[in-house]
């Protein structure tokens, strides 16, 4: 007996992100159906396919689940006061991270798990079916491992970010801390990480320090990512290319040379516009990067200091309005772009063999993510073939 | 036997907007309870008040329901293509309204009612407990009346906006259309309207035409409001003051003289930042207006062309990030400010005698509307004493 199949039928507008399956842009199939078997997609075609169970999409739009390739979901403590002070005129500085480090170290593992679970559930309701999670609020071997172990409950894409900032106990001894990250911490974190990351920024780590951390991680078998060019121009973007990083994240400030280097590489530029919103920075010039051939992704950067949101819809709206991406470019960046930034071929698109991660919208088109800013248009979320979110009161159809 | 009472108890942070009830700013009461009887509030005080029924706020924040003083909820048709074109570089022009006029005239009254009901429900889930609704997509006597009759199902604050744009059948004969608005249309609309409004803008109506419309409405007993200074500098804001309008709406472009006039008047400047977002205009300089003493409100301007959102939360985030209002100023503007713009004393605040419109947040502070952009933090909505929205999966608390 073969496993049970489910068809999502009567899809008015299906986004597949696969030009072998549908038409440009976005691999669109109209009046479509998608057949799932277990956790994967087995067929994509015209409406009316037969399966054991049928879900009716009501003629609305269905898209791939969002792939959020940059989050910091494991932390304790609140930084809303720092946020309010920033909105009243204080600049964002990397040092605020210490507040979260103190709270995270003090929290029990049960408490960290409870908080991260609530955030992962919130992200799921926001349509995020794949999530990357970084450590970086532990900043010693035991606490980084603790945070990575919590993150492992939610994703295989865990990232060791010991080089987030220099913890207070190493103040003035950054090179000593980098040595600790590259040796004792990395050794402890290794079994719980797929990726290694560093924050290349004034107030955090310089290019040589980041190179040391990522090179050590790579030698130990981890993939590389880098926080680059968030608060000003700097060496991060080109360093990410030099080290073969899967992703250079933020990229708010890019020179022509940075763009040329990114465009000639496999490194994805991951924009985090909710961060630029929440730190009142300028938005990155995505138009210029895309027109030059840079591969791009959009991610939430959910974290308590600079971007406490799980709303990929909000990121899409900002990407179109303030970064001058088309709606189609933004949607691709939040799905397939995120998958590329994680070097994942199984998610971010809708095709036979892909994981069955689908968002059923209470809207006829994905353009409503931007046309209707702030309105919750995600009606149902299917993750690995399971209906995990069901809203019974979508917006106006 | 006295009517049943309900206490909302264990409120960690209560915003009352009433300095006779709580402390500055926002009339804050900590560890509070609110007692309701029927549709109204009968007591506000420390936690632990006794009533027939008890709702536990879980130590979270409770605020007054949002008062959305500017919407166009009654219409048919979709303008997402126009929106996408605009995001690709085309400017917003008042003329796009004609698309909605054609669709609205073609729709049955049942269809208009169904669509408006869905939008009103969506707005309620977004925390809007009081809503103003304008006509303006009928543009002839019969269709304007039809739209106002639909609007009357949802609010006493219905607004006759015959002077939205000149309909095609009057093209080139604006003064003839104004005469029609001031006479036959006004006579028909009168029984279904509390307010009269006009769109004072290049491409719509000039100052003399708007003055004629509002003066006729006022003589017939309607209150006055005006769409002013949306797309550029113009006479609207000062005309609104001259005519004693309750509100001058948009106010994206204000001169020093406009601000001086508004500050010396009872006319509220109603900012509509989701419109500036969706038309990619600059945001109004709310800081300058507030510092000069102008009374301000925030509203969604929910309409299919320039701002298709019911999300007051989104407006709050924009008001703080992009208009440089404090979180407290933005929250006041979206509640008490909206009530002032509608000259309503019964809503927008929490005090004995006020209508029982309350938002129970899944957050410890109202600052999370801005700190957590795009995240749905409204957990329960109480409107006129009834629990009308209940989320069983709020965000992280």
Keywords:
homodimer; 397 residues; alpha/beta; Urease, subunit C, domain 1; TIM Barrel; 2 domains; eight-stranded mixed β-sheet; seven-stranded parallel β-sheet; 13 helices; 22% strand
How does this structure look, described?
Chain A is an alpha/beta fold and 397 residues long. In chain A, 33% of the residues lie in helices and 22% in strands. Chain A is built from 13 helices and 17 strands. In chain A, strands 1, 2, 3, 4, 5, 15, 16 and 17 form an eight-stranded mixed β-sheet that branches. The first copy, chain A, has a seven-stranded parallel β-sheet with strand order 8-9-10-11-12-13-14. A two-stranded parallel sheet of chain A has the order 6-7. In chain A, helix 8 (256-263) links the parallel strand 12 and strand 13 (268-271). The longest helix of chain A has 17 residues, at 109-125. Chain A is globular.
Write the layout of secondary structure elements.
Two copies of one chain form a homodimer.
Chain A: E1 5-15, E2 28-37, E3 40-46, E4 53-56, E5 61-64, E6 66-68, H1 80-87, H2 97-106, H3 109-125, E7 128-131, E8 133-134, H4 141-152, E9 158-163, H5 174-189, E10 195-200, H6 207-219, E11 223-228, H7 236-242, E12 247-250, H8 256-263, E13 268-271, H9 273-278, H10 286-291, E14 296-298, H11 312-321, H12 327-341, E15 358-361, H13 368-371, E16 378-383, E17 386-390
Parallel strand pairs in A: 1-4, 1-5, 6-7, 8-9, 9-10, 10-11, 11-12, 12-13, 13-14
Antiparallel strand pairs in A: 1-2, 2-3, 5-15, 15-16, 16-17
Helix pairs in contact in A: 3-4, 4-5, 5-6, 11-12
């Amino acid at each position: 007996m073969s496993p049970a199949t489910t068809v999502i039928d009567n899809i008015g507008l299906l986004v597949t992100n696969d030009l072998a399956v549908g038409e440009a842009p976005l691999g669109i199939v109209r009046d479509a159906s998608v057949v799932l078997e277990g956790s994967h997609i087995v067929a994509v075609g015209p409406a009316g396919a037969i399966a054991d169970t049928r879900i009716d999409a009501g003629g609305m739009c269905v898209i791939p689940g969002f792939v959020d390739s940059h989050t910091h979901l494991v932390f304790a403590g609140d930084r809303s006061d720092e946020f309010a002070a920033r909105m009243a005129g204080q600049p964002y500085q990397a040092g605020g991270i210490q507040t979260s480090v103190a709270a995270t170290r003090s929290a029990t593992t049960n408490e960290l798990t409870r908080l991260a679970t609530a955030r992962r559930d919130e992200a799921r309701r926001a349509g995020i079916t794949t999530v990357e999670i970084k450590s970086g609020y532990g900043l010693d071997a035991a606490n980084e491992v603790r945070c990575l172990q919590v993150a492992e409950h939610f994703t295989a894409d865990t990232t060791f970010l010991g080089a987030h900032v220099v913890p207070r106990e190493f103040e003035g001894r950054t090179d000593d801390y980098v040595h600790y990250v590259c040796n004792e911490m990395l050794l402890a974190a290794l079994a719980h990480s797929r990726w290694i990351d560093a924050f290349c920024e004034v107030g955090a780590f310089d290019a040589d320090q980041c190179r040391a951390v990522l090179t050590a991680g790579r030698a130990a078998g981890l993939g590389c990512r880098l926080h680059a060019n968030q608060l000003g121009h700097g060496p991060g973007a080109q360093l990410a290319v030099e080290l073969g990083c899967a992703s250079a994240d933020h990229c708010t400030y890019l020179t022509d040379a940075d763009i040329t280097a990114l465009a000639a590489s496999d490194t994805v530029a991951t924009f985090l516009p909710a961060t630029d919103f929440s730190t009142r920075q300028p938005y990155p010039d995505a138009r210029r990067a895309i027109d030059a051939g840079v591969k791009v992704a959009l991610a939430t950067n959910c974290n308590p200091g600079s971007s406490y949101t799980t709303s990929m819809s909000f990121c899409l709206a900002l990407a179109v309005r303030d970064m001058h991406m088309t709606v189609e470019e933004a949607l691709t960046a939040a799905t397939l772009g995120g998958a590329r930034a994680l070097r994942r071929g199984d998610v971010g698109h809708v095709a036979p063999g892909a994981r069955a991660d689908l968002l059923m919208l209470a809207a006829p088109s994905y353009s409503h993510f931007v046309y209707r800013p702030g309105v919750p248009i995600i009606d149902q979320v299917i993750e690995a073939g399971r209906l995990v979110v069901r809203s019974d009161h979508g917006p106006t159809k």
